[in-house]
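Researcher: Last one for today. Full complex below.
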Amino acid sequence: MRPVSSEFLVLKATALFVLWVLLSGSFDWVHLVLGGVLSFTVAWINSGHSPFVPKFRLWGNILLYLPWLFLRIVEGSLHMSKLILNPDLPIDPRLIRVEPKLGHRSAVVLLGNSITLTPGTITAEVDHDVVPETLIGEADPDALLVHAIDETSARDVTSGRLEAKIAEVFKNEERSL
Amino acid sequence: MDILSVLFILAGLFFLIVAAIGVIRLPDVFSRAHAVSLTDSLGAFLMLVGLALHEGLSKNNLKIIAVLALLYIQNPVITHATIRAALRAGLKPWRRRPS
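Model: Here's the assembly. Have a good evening.
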C-alpha cells in the first residue's frame, strides 16, 4: 500500500469528470459543479488504497495494438460466418493448450482477452487445478486452455503471432508474475 | 451519408442473423459461444458505426464510442466466464470423432 500523489488524484478526478460530462451531456452550472464535486470526492475516497500509477507508454502501446487486433477480429468473423453458412457445417472443435512466455501478468490477461475477442477461439480456463485431467491431459499450471472451433482458428493461436505482438507491447515493462 | 449508414447497419444485421443461425445449428454450448461472439464483435460494431454515421457530429457519437468500449471490454469477460463455468460443471466439448 503506497500513498498516491496529488498529481494522480487530479488525473483520476479529471477522468471521472470527463465521463460525467460525456454521459450527462449538459453544460449548465448545476451539472458541471455537481459533477466536479462528485468526481473529486470519489477520487479522494479511492486514493488511499489504490496502487494506481498510470503507465502512459504502456497505454499508448496498447492503443496502437487495438487496430491490429480489430483486423484479426474481422478475419475471425468472416471465417466463422463461412463455417456457419456452409451446409456441411465443417467444424472440428478442440481444446488446445497455450503456454505463454510473456513474463507479465497483465500481458497474459491481454492475451486471454484477445483470444476470446476473436471469433473462433475462446479462452476456457486459466486455472488448471479444477479441470479433470481426462479432458486436457496432464496439467500444466502456466498454460491457458483454449477452445477452438476448427483447425484454422486453432492455428491462429498456436502460431504464436498474437503472443509475439503482445510481447512487443510489453517489451519495455519490467517482469512481474 | 445516409446510404453509407444504411449499408453499415445492413452489414451489422447480416452478422447478427448469421450468429442466430449459428446458435441454432451448432451442436453444444462451447461452439455456440463462438457464434454468439460474432454478435458482439462485428455485428454490434457495424450497427453502432452505422448509427454514428446517421447521427453526424454530435455528443451522442461520444456516447456510442463509450458503448463500444464497454462492449469490447465486457464481451470477452462474459464469454470466458460462461465457458469456464460450463467446463467446471463437467460438460464435455462436442467432438467430430468421439475419442
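Chain B touches chain A through 37 residues (CB under 8 Å). Chain B has one domain: 2-88.
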